[in-house]
Amino acid sequence: LTTITDEARIALDTLSGRATGLFSPSLRLGVTGLSRAGKTVFISALVHNLIHGGRLPLFEAQKSGRIARAFLEEQPDDAVPRFQYEDHIAALVNDRVWPDSTRAISELRLTIEYESASGWSRMFSSGKLSVDIVDYPGEWLLDLPLLGKSFTDFSREAIEMAALPVREDLSRAWRAISARIDPNADADEMTARRLAESFAAYLKACKLDERALSTLPPGRFLMPGDLEGSPALTFAPLAGLGDRRPPPGSLHAMMDRRYEAYKTHVVKPFFREHITRLDRQIVLIDAMQALNAGPGAMADLERAVTEILSCFRPGRSNFLTDFFSRRIDRILVAATKADHLHHESHDRLQAIVRRLADRAVARANFTGADVDVAAMAAVRATREGTVKQGRETLPVIIGTPIAGERINGETFDGKTETAIFPGDLPEKIDALFDISGPDHRQDSEDPAIRFVRFRPPKLERTAEGVTLSLPHIRLDRALQFLIGDHLA
Ligand code: GDP
Predict the structure, then answer these.
(1) Which top-rank group of organisms is this from (predicted)?
(2) Ligand 1 pocket check: which of 98, 453, 473, 474 to mutate, most ligand atoms within 8 Å of Cβ?
(3) Of all atoms in ligand 1, which is nearest to the CA of residue 336?
(4) Half-sphere exposure of 472 toward its Cβ, with a 13 Å CA cutoff?
(5) CA 289 to ligand 1 centroid distance, Å
(6) β-strands 406-407, 410-411: how paired?
């Protein structure tokens, strides 16, 4: 009986809170993507633009003047590190350098005070929305399939992948060490460590390789967070396991136990405590890098997006169905860094992301949430101009390339503004996805897109000396899709 009364009381409190405006609804927004996709920059720019009343014409609540103010508040989860917004903004705005990238999970609460659009909503809503932004590495999501795999399955697959021609050279050192190991020998900490370190070095080498290879689990080997060096991360696949149970006290038994510990103590709690509580999700992708690297990398990116979307599909995996307490109803797949292209190519970039997301949705058999796509730049580091070349007028982008960046044999000093002809994205996008067809980049002597990294922009000041918020491309469109309806 007590429970019922308690529940009833909570329900009543909630209702009366709603009516008196005390209750402030919250929305949990997940921000993910593989490392360097642009998560840190996206969150920093989003918060900066909302707090400083940035130019957001496609964000309806802001455009119609209904947002009274937006400010940071204490986050609800004490055990999760705070997203270091102030440090990131200081780097971007004062030093004009890109902030430190995401290395683990973090959280930030942004509260928006607004006026509802209709009189009816005004009566029932508090006019306050807390957006809990949860930033986490996409690598961690890609661990979900491990939950359904035994140590033997995991070992077999990892060894098969490592021997594929694309990875064979990168995995050589680990495979050499691994080949000398007898899984039935006595467990030994130093052997375990040597194996784990060389396996992790191989996974990291795949990530850094210019072939832009897909990310392989375990995700914490690439992004350890605060678990670096812990036993749950000191394991590696073993060769020659067969189907026998591991002999007690053997290296095989030790690795098996640690693999299971990784699943129980690292993977499951992450999904249970963070992923299953999300309402909205943005998946950032570095489409520019993949386009530069060719169809193989595009296919790989598509595979990663497919796997990421599968993690948000409720009801397929038993583990998640047990724990989903909320349901993600909107997912945005967004390519950032569109400021590397002239605006004429933005729609093409969006069409490419649309194609990629559609194929991923189909392959992941994904239903249950609206999936939209965007081509955007959370921070716009360039402006546009034209350059006359002979009789032709070429559209260019102008920005300050980062010191040491090179193009056409020229090396930049990090101080000089430079005009760059970025090249066009191809009109026919099918070829970009066709691994068997000719590589579109070889159609001409030059690469299709000329890609240098620019420094963050210098912020403009108004006549009154007020510094304007960070410039962007279509950040407002992303915001409208992700939170706009909650401010209606
Ligand atoms: P994370 O690993 O997902 O947190 O990635 P970051 O947000 O740190 O972004 C990685 C790098 O991508 C940055 O250091 C920038 O060089 C670049 N970048 C990210 N977003 C943008 C953007 O909107 N415009 C431009 N020009 N570069 C960006």
Answers:
(1) Bacteria
(2) 98
(3) 23
(4) 31
(5) 12
(6) antiparallel
Q: What share of the chain is helix, strand, coil (3-state, %, to 5)?
A: 45, 15, 40
Q: How far is the CA of 100 from the centre of ligand 1 (A)?
A: 9
The DSSP call for residue 266 is I
Neighbour count for residue 264 (Cβ, 10 Å): 12
Percentage of the chain surpassing pLDDT 70? 87
**pLDDT higher than threshold 70 for residue 116:** yes
Q: How far apart are the first and last CA of the chain?
A: 39
Check residue 2 and give its pLDDT. 44
Residue range 329-334: average pLDDT? 95
Averaged pLDDT, 417-431: 83
* Residue 18 confidence (pLDDT): 41
Averaged over 4-16, what is the pLDDT?
Answer: 50
**Helix (H/G/I), strand (E/B), else coil: 273:** helix
The strand pairing partners of 411, in sequence order, are 406
pLDDT digits (tens, 9 = 90+) for 361-390: 998 888 888 999 999 999 999 999 998 888
Closest residue by CA, ligand 1 atom 9: 38
* CA nearest ligand 1 atom 10, residue: 36
List of domains in the chain = 26-136+275-379+473-487 (3.40.50.300), 144-270 (no CATH)
Q: Kindly give the number of the ligand 1 atom that is closest to the alpha carbon of 38.
A: 7
* Ligand 1 residue neighbourhood (C-beta within 6 Å): 33, 35-41, 98, 101-102, 336-337, 339, 377-379, 381, 453-454
pLDDT band at 442 (very low <50, low <70, confident <90, very high): very low
For the CA atoms of 158, 160, 164, 166, the dihedral, rounded to the nearest 10 degrees, stands at -10
